[in-house]
């Protein structure tokens, strides 16, 4: 995608977030009155909110969340914004089946304990305590130049490949160890 199209995509997303906020600021309240996004009387579209107070509270929460998200977007640097755009493009390119599978993976992740979630975020996946301890022991016992080389490699790998790389290094290290040597704990 050309850079100016990505910029336009970002601006369009920003407008989708800002327009309801501008409507609120003008006193529209998100209920189809006071203009905003062509909704309401004479636009050919029904008003945005036809139900009384309960819907209004829900709409206000959504609009507050949009404002919070906008503040977060404005705090991001260009690299982080580009990563978001890339992620949105990947999601847009997914088939409905792929989106459903991803939602299921996210749901499974959310069911994990905070400890297991953190392990996955750190690139450990579902590694055993024994493997984590072996990694720590291996890294402690490696010469500094090898340790630094492994750390640089880990930092350069995409998140999805870090666990496999770690597990391969642990396997190689364990195989190189004498059978019944005492461990350094």
Number of strands: 0
Provide the helix percentage.
over 70%
Question: What is the terminal-to-terminal distance?
Answer: 52 Å
User: Regarding quaternary structure, how should these chains be classified?
Assistant: single chain
**Strand composition percent:** under 5%
Overall description:
The chain is an all-alpha fold. The chain is built from 8 helices and no strands. Helix 1 crosses helix 2 and helix 6 crosses helix 8. The chain is elongated, with a radius of gyration of 25 Å. The protein starts with a helix and ends in a 9-residue tail after the last helix.
Briefly characterize the structure.
This protein is mostly helical and 185 residues long.
Features:
185 residues, mainly alpha, single chain, elongated, 70% helix
Per-chain topology:
Layout: H1 3-25, H2 53-75, H3 78-93, H4 96-111, H5 114-121, H6 129-141, H7 144-156, H8 159-176
């Amino acid at each position: 995608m050309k850079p100016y199209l990505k910029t336009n995509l970002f601006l369009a997303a920003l407008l989708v977030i800002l327009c309801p906020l501008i409507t609120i600021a003008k006193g529209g309240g998100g209920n189809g009155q006071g203009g905003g996004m062509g909704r309401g009387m004479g636009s050919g579209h029904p008003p945005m909110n036809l139900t009384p107070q309960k819907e209004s509270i829900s709409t206000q929460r959504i609009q507050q969340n949009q404002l919070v998200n906008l503040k977060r977007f404005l705090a991001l640097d260009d690299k982080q914004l580009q990563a978001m755009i890339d992620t949105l493009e990947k999601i847009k390119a997914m088939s409905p089946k792929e989106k459903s599978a991803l939602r299921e993976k996210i749901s499974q992740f959310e069911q994990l304990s905070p400890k297991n979630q953190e392990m996955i975020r750190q690139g450990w996946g579902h590694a055993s305590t024994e493997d984590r301890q072996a990694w720590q022991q291996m890294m402690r016992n490696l010469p500094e130049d090898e340790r630094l080389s492994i750390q640089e490699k880990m930092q350069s790998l995409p998140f999805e490949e870090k666990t496999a790389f770690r597990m391969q290094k642990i396997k190689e290290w364990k195989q190189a160890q004498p059978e019944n040597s005492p461990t350094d704990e």
